[in-house]
């Protein structure tokens, strides 16, 4: 497959580590990985953000200084600090907005969506010595917490611990009444998988905001992580099409059709190509 990666440099910012298939997820925190993505997309100064974050970490640590162990009592105290005292909350009114996905904006506003709140919360929990992992759950991001004598699941959107019965109801609401909650659904995910989920959410938010150029950058980063993801190539083709980059869109559609010739969407892509007016396309 031909590499059509976008080359974007923020001239006012130092050159930062880019997210790609060689990124060291194993030795990088999830938060640092996501901030690496955000720095490329928005020009975020990671060092300045981390300075602000450390101030809040100090506040949290001081308030929990009396707890010797990372037990359920300490967990509930931490959640009270974050969700009651500091006002973190899920933003029900503007769920699919860019400001609810970008970590820096969520940190500043104390509002966000499950995955953005969850990534921040994972960092706070790890600071307080909890054994935690993220889960790309069907109905929204969850946090897996291993306590002394039990495993609990935290919903970062509400700041509440979710029972197995509640999770099963959410699965049915997302996947249909006949869906069943399985252990695989609550299996922790790797940092790379979570970063990909974050990028897809961010891409969707930029598409809704009609900022197709930045949505295309999100797609480009996803393809750096997995260059042969034919479905992401197809989606990038739709973004190229919206930008009237029709030759690039055609190339992406044809790549997908070659990889998945029996996919139901193939006939739609063929029709899209037939209807393209290459005389009026944006040239690259």
Please tell me about this protein's structure.
- The chain is of the alpha+beta class.
- The protein folds into 2 domains: 1-227, no CATH class; 228-284, no CATH class.
- It contains 11 helices and 6 strands.
- The protein has helices at residues 30-42, 46-63, 72-85, 103-109, 114-127, 164-175, 191-208, 212-225, 230-242, 246-259, 266-275; strands at 89-90, 111-112, 131-135, 142-146, 151-155, 160-162.
- The strands form 2 sheets. Strands 3-4-5-6 form a 4-stranded antiparallel sheet. Strands 1-2 form a two-stranded parallel sheet.
- Helix 1 (30-42) packs parallel to helix 7 (191-208).
- The longest helix has 18 residues, at 46-63.
- It starts with 29 loop residues before the first helix and ends in a 9-residue tail after the last helix.
- Residues 1-16 have low confidence and may be disordered.
- Belongs to the UPF0162 family.
- Residues 55-200 form the Protein SirB1 N-terminal domain.
- Pfam families: TPR_9, Transglut_core2.
- This is Protein SirB1 N-terminal domain-containing protein.
- It comes from Psychromonas marina.
Layout of helices and strands, plus pairs?
Elements: H1 30-42, H2 46-63, H3 72-85, E1 89-90, H4 103-109, E2 111-112, H5 114-127, E3 131-135, E4 142-146, E5 151-155, E6 160-162, H6 164-175, H7 191-208, H8 212-225, H9 230-242, H10 246-259, H11 266-275
Parallel strand pairs: 1-2
Antiparallel strand pairs: 3-4, 4-5, 5-6
Helix pairs in contact: 1-7, 7-8, 8-9, 9-10, 10-11
